[in-house]
Design goal:
With about 270 residues, this protein is α/β, with parallel strands linked by helices. Helices cover about 30% and strands about 20% of the residues. The protein contains 8 helices and 9 strands. The strands form 2 sheets. A 7-stranded mixed β-sheet has the order 5-4-3-6-7-8-9. The chain is globular, with a radius of gyration of 17 Å. Bound molecules: S-adenosyl-L-homocysteine (SAH). S-adenosyl-L-homocysteine binds next to β2, α6 and β4.
Length: about 270
């Protein structure tokens, strides 16, 4: 049963009002993450490994059922090089080439939980699973696939051509369904083609919060961006209403993301 099939059950479930815990840069990599036994065929073992991963995310405070189901339904080992596949269900970022990493499951789960909670102030639970999302920094396509499972419609942009091509391959089944688009594009200033969005996720860090994106976001919409020079904080800005010229910013904890870079890299 996939994430969307369980929506009505999750919608009916009583929401856990537990405050989202905070985390620091060092804590992003779970220090005592139990090493999974390597499997010669991670595909066969991945269902069990995903269940263990979900168990660890729950222990770290992830309570949103839609997010948990999405992590459980996306095969992360298919987004990394086969040499790293046996590590795909450890809760760590892994290299995907070009100095970039596939997002850490905990960070993916945490950021989506934050955005869903902020959007829930102005959207019904039914609307929450039908949101128009932009991700800047597609990388392997893993987070884009999780976003799709959670929200229903995703545009993701990537500035490194070989990563863009690989993401297209990794996500071909989702793209075929017509709800995920991946573009070779420098998304530092957003991506107007699919705007307005309900939420924009930056998967790499900016030096300043991108206030100029106010016109690419719907009322009540959210921009989530790891922000800062050196020390980075996870910031989420909500567009309170159409008359607002700036976001209302909530600050979460310290994070460690690769930086957003400018321009396109073709090889
Ligand atoms: N979410 C991805 C990983 C993101 S790593 C995953 O799950 O695999 C950050 C990504 O942001 C890298 O692939 C990097 O090339 C991309 N990136 C950095 N600056 C960018 C920009 N200006 N426009 C689009 N993508 C960018």
């Amino acid at each position: 049963m996939g994430a969307k099939d369980k929506i009505s059950r999750a919608i009916l479930a009583k929401e856990n009002p537990t405050l989202l815990p905070r985390w620091g840069a060092r804590a992003l990599i779970e220090p005592e993450a139990e090493k999974e036994k390597s499997s010669s065929n991670p595909g066969l073992a991945s269902h069990t490994l995903r269940k263990k991963l979900i168990g660890r995310l729950k222990k770290r405070g992830i309570v949103d059922e839609i997010v948990i189901d999405a992590i459980g339904s996306v095969a992360r080992h298919q987004f990394v090089d086969s040499a790293l596949a046996s590590m795909a269900y450890e809760d760590v970022a892994l290299p995907i080439g070009f100095g970039q990493t596939i997002s850490q499951p905990f960070v993916v789960a945490k950021t989506i939980s934050i955005v869903r909670e902020l959007l829930s102030k102005t959207r019904s639970r039914e609307e929450l699973v039908q949101q128009n999302i932009l991700e800047v920094g597609c990388g392997s396509g893993y987070q884009a696939s999780i976003l799709l499972e959670c929200f229903g419609s995703v545009t993701s942009v990537e500035r490194i051509y070989p990563l863009y091509k690989k993401a297209l391959q990794n996500c071909d089944q989702y793209i075929g369904q017509g709800k995920l688009q991946i573009n070779f594009f420098d998304g530092k200033c957003g991506f107007t083609d699919g705007a307005p969005y309900d939420a924009i996720f930056f998967s790499a860090s900016l030096e300043k919060f991108p206030n100029q994106l106010i016109n690419q976001v719907k009322d009540g919409g959210v921009v989530l961006s790891p922000t800062g020079k050196g020390l980075q904080y996870l910031l989420a800005g909500t567009k309170e209403s159409s008359s607002c010229s700036s976001f209302s910013i909530s600050r979460y904890d310290v994070v460690s993301y690769v930086p957003i870079l400018e321009g396109l890299e073709r090889s």
